[in-house]
Design brief:
This protein is an alpha/beta fold. The chain is 44% helix and 19% strand. The strands form 2 sheets. It has a 5-stranded mixed β-sheet, with helices on both faces. It is globular. The structure holds 5'-O-[(R)-(carboxyoxy)(hydroxy)phosphoryl]adenosine and zinc ion. Zinc ion is lined by residues 114, 118, 139, 272, 305.
């Protein structure tokens, strides 16, 4: 079989990204233009600003991907594009661009679910990884525990009932005046703090199911900060970060390992921006080792938003014969088990 070259576009949040892969798992170009510096001053992503920046960046990012891969449009076999979930205005920029490319070049268009993209990042890094396995997808917008039965076949075992885990990191960081995005900052400070200093709640940890809840934890951190302020007591930011992170990590690791054991699988993968968290990685590694489970996660650049993961997911959809037409729409709340 001849090689399949995929060009993928991702614009669901604040990264304008384009990647080119060979046979889904070999990355020839992975260009990411991040808008973090622009949104930082607002303390979070401003949707309207994100859409405008995507429009300004997308041509440059696509051209840079082609240059990096040493290719022209005539080398591309199909286009893959994120069409949800995400910010609708931001998604529409990438989607419209992808449709125009596919139409002009006369090649197939394949829509990709962003969450499916995140979990597919592991296929790029771990060449021998094959379904079935359990995956924990933890990002700014999502916290999902999913049974990957086959390529493109998913069952959601659990998800967050309220805030996503990354969102909790971002909100706690904001409340402490530490900056955006909060995850990497909290992670760094947590390394110097005492995780047992403050006893924050671990919601749902003893429930039978696999759902998560982080809004109570977030409120508990905010209450702690307020009460210390009222009492004129200085907080130790490192201890707050370490104690908060420990609460998030305890719940995530506990549920993921439980799901893997209950379902009889041997492999757990992590993905999404929060999969960069050093506490999560090391606690998962420890517990997986003890339970004789195999743990896999992508390198940092493939944890946060990128288009290589979309190309990989798009490639498997393409192989399965999935094609989308020019009326493919952006779906802000697209579910992974609807793919
Ligand atoms: O996957 P991603 O780039 O975007 C979404 O699809 O949401 O994830 C971004 C999220 C942000 O909430 C950010 O704070 C979090 O990932 N994040 C981290 C770390 N690095 C990024 N959270 C905890 N620890 C980190 N090291
Ligand atoms: Zn994402």
């Amino acid at each position: 079989m001849s090689d399949i070259i995929t060009l993928a576009i991702e614009s669901s949040c604040d990264e304008t990204a384009c990647a080119i892969t060979r046979n889904g798992r070999e990355v020839l170009a992975n260009i990411i233009s991040t808008q973090i510096e622009i949104h930082k001053k607002f303390g979070g992503v401003v949707p309207e600003v994100a859409s405008r920046k995507h429009i300004e960046n997308i041509d440059l990012v696509v051209q840079e991907a082609l240059d990096t891969a040493g290719m022209t449009f005539s080398d591309i076999d199909h286009i893959a594009v994120t069409h949800g979930p995400g910010l609708v205005g931001a998604l529409l920029v990438g989607l419209s661009y992808a449709k125009a490319l596919a139409f002009t070049l006369g090649i197939p268009l394949v829509g990709v679910n962003h969450i499916e993209g995140h979990l597919s990042a592991n296929y790029i890094e771990h060449k021998d990884l094959k379904p079935p396995f359990i995956t924990l997808i933890v990002s700014g917008g999502h916290t999902h525990l999913v049974e990957v039965k086959d390529y493109g076949s998913y069952e959601i075992l659990g998800k967050t009932k309220d805030d996503a885990s990354g969102e909790a990191f971002d909100k706690v960081s904001r409340a402490m005046g530490l900056g955006y995005p909060g995850g990497p900052i909290v992670d760094r400070l947590a390394k110097q703090g005492n995780p047992g200093a403050i006893d924050f709640p671990r919601a749902c940890i003893h429930d039978d199911g696999y759902d998560f809840s982080f809004s109570g934890l977030k409120s508990s951190v905010l209450n702690y900060l307020n009460s210390m302020k009222m009492k004129n007591i200085d907080i130790v930011p490192e201890d707050v970060c370490a104690s908060f992170q420990a609460a998030v990590v305890d719940v995530l690791t506990n549920k993921a390992i439980k799901a893997c054991m209950d379902k009889g699988y041997k492999t757990i993968t992590l993905s999404g921006g929060v999969a960069s968290n050093s506490g999560l990685r090391s606690q998962m590694a420890d517990l997986c080792h003890k339970a004789c489970l195999d743990l896999k996660y992508p390198p940092l650049v493939l944890c946060t938003d990128n288009a290589a993961m979309i190309a990989c997911a798009g490639y498997y959809r393409y192989l399965a014969g999935k094609r989308d037409s020019m009326d493919l729409n952006a779906v802000p709340n697209l579910k992974i088990d609807q793919v």
